[in-house]
Structures are given as C-alpha cells and as structure tokens.
Design brief:
By secondary structure, this protein is α+β, with helices and mostly antiparallel strands. The protein has 2 domains: about 40 residues, no CATH class; about 150 residues, Jelly Rolls, CATH 2.60.120. About 15% of the residues lie in helices and about 35% in strands. Helix 1 crosses helix 2. The longest helix is centred in the N-terminal third of the chain and has 16 residues. About 10% of the residues have low confidence.
Length: about 200
C-alpha cells in the first residue's frame, strides 16, 4: 500500500511538472510524501542519527557549525543522479555524475554568509574507489576565484565527511562550483560548509 501511494504521488508530480517519472526531484517527492503523512524513516534509524556522521548513518545539515548548503539546495546544470548507496553523507543522500566524462554537469553551492570575514570552506562527499581523483572546484571569494582539485577516492579527513578547500576572505556572498570537467571517475556532490575563522 505504501509503495502504491509513493508511485502514485511520483506519477502525479511528474504529470504536473511535465517530467518523466524518473526525473521527479527527490526533494519534491519527499516533501509531498511527508505532507501526506507517509513515514519515510523508521524511528530506530532516526534515533541513531544524532550527532556526527559515522559509516552507517547521515549527518543532519543543520547540526555542523557554520553555514552548510546541502546538495538539495545546489543549483544544478546537466545530469546529476540522486543516491544514498554509500553511507556517511549529509542530509538524505547525495548526487553523482553517473561517470559522465563530457564535462557538461556542474553544481553551484551559493550562500550569503552572516558577516564579512575569513572562512574555511569545506566539501562533503562519501568516498569510494570509483570516484574521480581530480574533481575540479572553484571558490569565489573577495580576492577572486580559487581553483582546487579534490581526490574523492580518499576518505575526507574532517570527521570522515568533509575535506578542507582552504581559507578565504569573503565580503558576504560566496559561491562554490563543482564541475565534472576532465573527471576520471564519478563526481559526487553532497554539501559545502563555511566556517568562520
């Protein structure tokens, strides 16, 4: 019965948005199912997901300090596929490029920081051996644009979730763009964090 309701809701959203059912954004489907009173997580799993992420759970994007923008709020270009197959992610899952090597996909994480100043910028991703070792990232800051590369095959060193992209001065707004250009594997987008220094 629950599966039938979910399928019908996805079909209705697809019709309303003129999408094929597989292209209905997960965030929109999830919000509608919750609005309809459907339970999407069992209580024991939700209770175990307090605090920091481990290898078997996820991290609530509202828990870490600073400003966190989840992949659900990123501005996406190109084809990104939703997944929750590899645990240890921020929010309800992450997105990946499907190993496309055309460089047509990018994701912009944008925020207005609470005050001007120096911030450390971090990227979250669940690592795997099929990930790209050369993910291209651009950080727009007060001094211009910084380009960095991240090896997503390696486990992120900060709590097993985040990797530092560096510290930069910001006047208020910030944009971090992740690109699939030249990638040698799956590019994963999960979340970006800004920490005041």
């Amino acid at each position: 019965m629950i599966l039938g309701q979910s399928a019908a809701t996805a079909a209705a959203l697809a019709i309303d948005s003129n999408f094929v059912v597989q292209e209905v954004p997960y965030a929109k489907l999830r919000a509608r199912l919750l609005q309809d009173g459907q339970v999407l997580e069992y209580a024991a799993a939700a209770a175990s997901r307090k605090g920091s992420a481990s290898a078997h759970d996820f991290l609530d994007p509202k828990k870490p300090p600073g400003v966190v923008v989840d992949d659900e709020d990123a501005k996406l270009t190109g084809d990104w596929k939703f997944s929750s197959a590899t645990p240890g992610y921020v929010g309800h899952g992450y997105r990946h490029s499907g190993n496309a090597k055309d460089g047509n996909a990018s994701a912009r994480f944008e925020t207005s920081l609470p005050k001007p100043g120096r911030y450390e910028v971090r990227l979250a991703y669940p690592p795997h051996s099929n990930r790209a070792s050369n993910v291209k990232i651009e950080i727009q800051h007060a001094g211009g644009t910084e380009s960095v590369s991240v090896n997503q095959r390696n486990s992120p060193p900060v709590d097993g979730v985040f990797v530092s992209l560096g510290e930069f001065e910001f006047l208020g707004d910030s944009t971090v763009t992740v690109s699939t250009t030249g990638a040698d594997g799956y590019v994963v987008i999960d979340a970006v964090q800004w920490l005041a220094k």
